[in-house]
Amino acid sequence: MARSSEQFTCQNCGEIYRKWQGHCDACGEWNSILQEAAASAVPSGLTLGKGHEIVFTALDADRTEHKRSHSGIGELDRVLGGGFVPGSSILIGGDPGIGKSTLLLQAVAKMALAGEACTYISGEEATQQIAMRARRLGLADAPVQLASANSLRDIITSVEKAKIPKLLVIDSIQTVFADNLPSAPGTVAQVRASAQELIRLARKTGLSVILVGHVTKDGQIAGPRVLEHMVDTVLYFEGDRGHQFRILRAVKNRFGATDEIGVFEMTDHGLQEVANPSSLFISDPGKAISGASVFAGMEGTRPLLVEIQGLVAPTPQATPRRAVVGWDSNRLAMILAVLDARCGLSFAGQEVYLNVAGGLRVQEPAADLAVVAALVSSISDVPVPESSLFFGEIGLSGEIRAVGQTDARLKEAAKLGFKCAVIPAGSKIKDSPMKIIEVGHLREIVSLFTETRPVSQAV
Ligand code: TYD
Ligand code: MG
Fold first, then answer.
1. Whole-prediction pTM value?
2. From CA 17, how far away is CA 29, in angstroms rounded?
3. Which residues have CB under 6 Å of ligand 1?
4. pLDDT digits (tens, 9 = 90+) for 106-144
5. C-alpha 136 to ligand 1 mean position (Å)
6. How far is the CA of 99 from the centre of ligand 1 (A)?
7. Are 412 and 305 in contact (CB under 8 A)?
8. Direct distance between the N- and C-terminal alpha carbons of the chain, in angstroms, rounded to an integer
């Protein structure tokens, strides 16, 4: 019989090789392939014998509405799609020190205070450390079942023996190990096997399990990407270490939308929910400075206003720098090319810097118009008109395309005291108290700035 007990697994993507090699062909990672024992011997050929007959049902067979349980943290419940679904599994990833343990400790403590049984198992910190943190957060008297453990067998036995909790937190999945596998904790085989068992436990008992996952230096959940396929929901907790706020983002959700975000602020009393995030990311809306514009964006169903800052500075270097923080650099390159080709506004010999204030990452193409406003304002040194905001997508021919949810964006802006909105022509709007300037082509945006004062460089 062939020896199939040894295999080589990429620790980044989970690809399996028969021989060791330095480079993973599947994900392109170097030095990520380790020797592991095969998880289980797969029977060769169809020697399984006769199986059991499975019962087929109709789509509407189970009409019982599963009641979601709430964590008591509104922003977390929103990202989950309205609370924890019984029997579901959630993976939460994020950089070290971003606040995953803090958020989950707060969630279990709040749920426990509301009378639900909750278990928090940490493989990274001792129970004293967690208790100390709970005291700092003012949550020390919450009746959470707390433990520090690593063995999967012990965890499952204890959870099944004690009162089955509503919520089980495993911090982190990389520290859990199954003793029937010879590989070290944190390896693909271990992480996959442990997660599988915990997910099975959740399905069987109806508890919700949250697995904390480490991320690699390029921001992926460490270990196997396969983990993301196994769980029902994948959340990322992100933020800039230099800034106070943190964003919880759903990237996969079998029970809700994936475009919702939760905004938190890290304070010395733990994470506080931010109910009105727009005010975090914009400076005084009345102040007019050149090179800064406000973008009315949408994060899921929620409007979010952010300040976009652009700086255009001459340089003697042959290849000027284009640096972007918080936005897609390819998109910036495209916009610079469109400005050059369609409006004759050249950025050759100029360094271009673009920054989304507050450390936020904007992903919507609707930010194009605000980016153009910031850049043209900076190059012409004409401030963006006071209390105005921008949104709209730019096409390669310079046309400005309408984007969705115009009314929600305008409503949020009006609430924050904005007076004027520059939006794509043909947007469908209900009446708004703001002054609306509709623009159909990029040239009209450029002329908003250049007609006030001639630009020295070009046009
Ligand atoms: P932590 O939850 O341990 O991060 P993770 O589990 O994602 O690695 O967060 C620790 C950081 O949060 C640490 O740098 C200190 C900071 N922090 C506060 O600023 N205020 C607090 O009340 C707490 C508990 C932590
Ligand atoms: Mg932690």
1. 0.77
2. 14
3. 94, 96-102, 133, 136-137, 266, 268-270
4. 999 999 999 999 999 999 999 999 999 999 999 999 999
5. 11
6. 5
7. yes
8. 76
